[in-house]
Amino acid sequence: RHAVQIGFMATATIVHKPRYKRDKVRKTSVSLQFDRQRITSAVCSVHRRRHLWCRHIVRLVFYRMRCPMKFKYRLPISYCLEELDIEQHKLIIQNVLSIN
């Protein structure tokens, strides 16, 4: 399982072990967005219906509540940009413009 939280968004890849030897390993991507201790959005790569929670979403919610230290925490890019000085901002803008 690969679980990451960036700001107010948590994503994970859930790996399903095959039941039989001939079956392949399946992976499901799940993402949660939350605000003020409430889940505002939940999306699963298997079940695309946004108004229902499938078992993968429920699994990620419980995993986040029971094992918070197993999540990798990363700062949102906005926090990283706040710590840069003006010269570093200019360099980033130049690099972005040169790509396009």
Oligomeric grouping of the chains = single chain
The class by helix and strand makeup works out as alpha+beta
Query: Order of strands across the biggest sheet?
Result: 4-3-2-1-5
Number of strands: 5
State the end-to-end distance. Answer: 35 Å
In terms of per-residue confidence, which ranges show pLDDT below 50 for 5 or more consecutive residues?
none
Order of secondary-structure elements: EEEEHEHH
Q: What is the arithmetic mean of pLDDT?
A: 85
How much helical structure, as a percent, in the residues? 25-40%
| Biggest sheet record | 5 strands, mixed
Strand content: 25-35%
Shape: elongated
Contiguous helical run count: 3
Rg from Cα: 18 Å
What would your notes on this structure say?
A five-stranded mixed β-sheet has the order 4-3-2-1-5, with helices on one face. Helices cover 32% and strands 33% of the residues. It contains three helices and five strands. A hairpin with a 2-residue loop joins β3 and β4. The chain is of the alpha+beta class and 100 residues long. The protein has helices at 55-66, 77-82, 86-99, and strands at residues 2-6, 9-16, 26-35, 38-44, 72-74.
